[in-house]
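To assess whether the prediction recovers the assembly geometry, we first specified each molecular entity separately, as shown.
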Amino acid sequence: SQKIEQNSEALNIQEGKTATLTCNYTNYSPAYLQWYRQDPGRGPVFLLLIRENEKEKRKERLKVTFDTTLKQSLFHITASQPADSATYLCALRTRGGSQGNLIFGKGTKLSVKP
Amino acid sequence: DGGITQSPKYLFRKEGQNVTLSCEQNLNHDAMYWYRQDPGQGLRLIYYSQIVNDFQKGDIAEGYSVSREKKESFPLTVTSAQKNPTAFYLCATAGGDTQYFGPGTRLTVL
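The predicted structure of the complete assembly is given in tokenized form:
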């Protein structure tokens, strides 16, 4: 069966440390993978997109890696801050899927303690 | 001021009643989506529309209906046939590869 899993429901880290979130998928052929941030009671906000032929993408303190052999993406937040506390969703677009359609993981709730 | 608006933010419904959730966008995007989110769950696709006057069922369309008469608008009706409608509903548009989400409507069935 096809699955997209974010391994941890919750991740607690200390301010200043690097947060690493994991997204694994099975039985999909991804065209690209995206990461979104969602604050409580609000809609998700797009952060980064990485394509199947890319290994790494960076944006300020954020870094995403994509390993299609391991079927895994890692999302890193360096020098984490309490303001980074939120739920982070990974989303996958399959090759051959309808334009723009995404499959979402359940999310990992990140808490950064001061 | 571009964006996606959803109304109302909170909605209460009695069992057996139909209710319509509004979604309006001024991003000029062709594709629009409705998702449902339950606590601890990912986003599940209800319906999507790639173009005006056309829409397709998503993974959990039973008990829901939509229309797409205008590019800007994609209302979702939660019918009495939906057995467990209490949830957070999110509307989104797609501009290229990225989805843009509205603020959501929290529906509670009393």
